Amino acid sequence: MPPKSDINVRSSQCFMPRWVTGWAVIGSLICIWDATYVLTRPRSMAKGDLFHIFYPYAKYITVDPLYGNLQNAFVIAQSWMNYVEVTLTLFSVILYHFLGRRNSGCLLLLIASVMTWSKTVVYFIHDYFERPLHPQDLPIKIETWEYLCLFIIPSSFWIILPCACIWSIGRQIIKILNSSNDKIKSK
User: Fold this and answer.
1) What angle in degrees, to the nearest 10, is found between the helix axes of 18-39 and 153-186?
2) Greatest CA span in the chain, whole angstroms?
3) Vertex 165, ends 163 and 156: CA angle to 5°?
4) Domain ranges, ordered by start, for the chain
5) Which residues contact 110 (CB under 8 A, 6 or more apart)?
6) Helix 18-39 / helix 102-130 crossing angle, nearest 10 deg
7) Three-state secondary structure of 84-115
8) Which of 37, 65, 106, 154 could in theory staple to 14 by disulfide, Cβ–Cβ 3.0 to 4.6 A?
9) How far is CA 3 from CA 13, 15, 180, 187, in A?
10) Residue 116 and residue 112: Cα distance in Å, rounded?
């Protein structure tokens, strides 16, 4: 059995599960690609010199016309927020895994996950209310299955996984804070 002081140190440290780290890194790379597509338009669009990097978006903009609209400030703003979230997320992984600042890394990832989750929910709400207002902006008529497979399902990962991160890490932070409060009260 480890010494008592060792148990107290471990119980006061947040644990970042492997799947959370994996999601943080992979999700960040996808967000960098996505934000870069938006912020380099029209160069990243068909006939642009960067199109070879972003060719899947040629199909995606048929289901999400906001990505094809060069003047849409909402998409531009959410892309800049992607960079902020990615910076926080990757810094949280560095803090946790490379600098040994486990609690700081977990707290920063919790903050970034809340940002990612809320931004994605706002994007869904915006799409729900905006799409019927501008049916003429849809480049072609899309099928329901295309909308589900190319927009709803992939975008849902940015709601489900950040929510799971919030749950996993948030519970630990609350437990650590409650434990600290109990220690203070017992003194």
Assistant:
1) 130
2) 69
3) 40
4) 17-171
5) 165, 166, 169, 170, 173
6) 50
7) HHHHHHHHHHHHHHHCCCHHHHHHHHHHHHHH
8) 106
9) 16, 20, 19, 21
10) 6
Q: Which string of DSSP letters, residue by residue, matches the chain?
A: ---HHHHHHHHTS----HHHHHHHHHHHHHHHHHHHHHHTTTTTSTTSTTHHHHTTHHHHHHH-GGGT-TT-HHHHHHHHHHHHHHHHHHHHHIIIIIS--HHHHHHHHHHHHHHHHHHHHHHHHHHHHHGGG-GGG-SS---HHHHIIIIIHHHHHHHHHHHHHHHHHHHHHHHHHHHHHHHHHH-
Token pair recorded at residue 64:
């999400």
Q: Which long-range contacts (CB under 8 A, 24 or more apart) does 168-172 make?
A: 168/17, 168/20, 169/14, 169/16, 169/20, 169/106, 169/109, 169/110, 169/113, 170/110, 172/14, 172/15, 172/106
pTM of the model: 0.85
Check if the beta carbon of residue 57 is closer than 8 Å to that of residue 37: yes
Distance CA 118, CA 150 (A): 20
Structure tokens at 89: 């997320």
If one compares 183 and 21, the residue with the highest pLDDT of the two is 21
107-154 per-position pLDDT tens digit = 999 999 999 999 999 999 988 887 766 655 555 677 888 889 988 999
